[in-house]
Amino acid sequence: MSAPVDDLAGRLREVGYLADRGLATAAHVALRLGRPLLLEGEVGVGKTEISKALAEVLDRRLIRLQCYEGIDAHQALYEWDYARQLLHIRALGAEDLRGAETVASLYGPEFLLERPLLAAVRAGSGAVLLIDEVDRADDEFEAFLLELLSDFQVTIPEIGTVRAAEPPLVVLTSNRTRELHDALKRRCLYHWVGYPDAERELAIVLTRAPGVAEDLAAKVVAAVGRLRGLDLAKPPGVAETIDWVRTLDVVDATDLDAEVAEDTLGAVVKDRDDLDVVRSQLDRIVAGG
């Protein structure tokens, strides 16, 4: 690993994010080349968290766009505050409304509701833009994102074009609920975020849940590894491992046996059918058989 990549990985570790070599390299290259970084992987493996960590390390503003089914360009870019505009109109006299300057004043900055993408364009290199779960948006919105990420400029008809002098660092995440188009992938650097090995997952847990006994954390990590080997609809991610360890700490558990695991399964298994599968094999899961 090169010295700059080592440095970035070390700085991320200082703020509580343990990036593996591949992820640290991808983030470093994205920063140097000014390219968006697309992270795909299972739920709960830290795709969103690295954006927060990078914002802290780089001392930049974190701007998050949470994608969802039906999101459109205006909801992501900007909207006019129609309620305030209406109040402004009512406050004006009938004669005042006829002036061109008064009409133009209805579209002043005080009436513009800035959404995440416009905020990121304005902030430029002072921001980390997280476009979270882009796979939940539809094809039309994905095409719109492609254009925005190419130019980093926004045209507001009533105001004009807003351009970023320097682009923000952009991180897109996807849980692969649908396949993203090749055009978007080609625009980005790509990294697959998989489950960490047991040693690194233990290190992550001890970093995020300081004060927890290492032997208990190790047993939880091993048990979660066995859970991932089952045919579950929603295998637990690293986030669930951390939740389980913290839950055990809250209930003052000093060991992970079948009884304690049964009482705290809701921290790590979050699907009704998966619970039945896990409960049928709980002794083996916690004992390591």
Please characterize this protein's 3D structure:
The protein has 289 residues and is α/β, with parallel strands linked by helices. The protein folds into 2 domains: 3-77 and 115-193, Rossmann fold (3-Layer(aba) Sandwich), CATH 3.40.50.300; 198-287. It has 15 helices and 9 strands. The strands form 3 sheets. Strands 2-5-8-1-9 form a 5-stranded parallel sheet, with helices on both faces. Strands 3-4 form a two-stranded antiparallel sheet. Strand 6 (153-156) and strand 7 (160-163) form a beta hairpin. Helix 1 (3-14) crosses helix 2, helix 10 crosses helix 11 (214-228) and helix 10 (198-208) crosses helix 12.
In CATH, the topology of the largest domain is named Rossmann fold
Task: List the uncertain runs.
Answer: none
- Proportion of residues in extended strands: 5-15%
Q: Secondary-structure element sequence?
A: HHEHEHEHHEHEHEEEHEHHHHHH
Largest sheet: 5 strands, parallel
CATH homologous superfamily of the largest domain - what is it?
A: P-loop containing nucleotide triphosphate hydrolases
Task: Please write out the topology.
Layout: H1 3-14, H2 21-33, E1 37-41, H3 47-58, E2 61-66, H4 73-76, E3 78-80, H5 82-91, H6 100-105, E4 112-114, H7 116-123, E5 127-132, H8 139-151, E6 153-156, E7 160-163, E8 169-174, H9 182-187, E9 189-193, H10 198-208, H11 214-228, H12 238-250, H13 258-264, H14 272-279, H15 282-287
Parallel strand pairs: 1-8, 1-9, 2-5, 5-8
Antiparallel strand pairs: 3-4, 6-7
Helix pairs in contact: 1-2, 10-11, 10-12
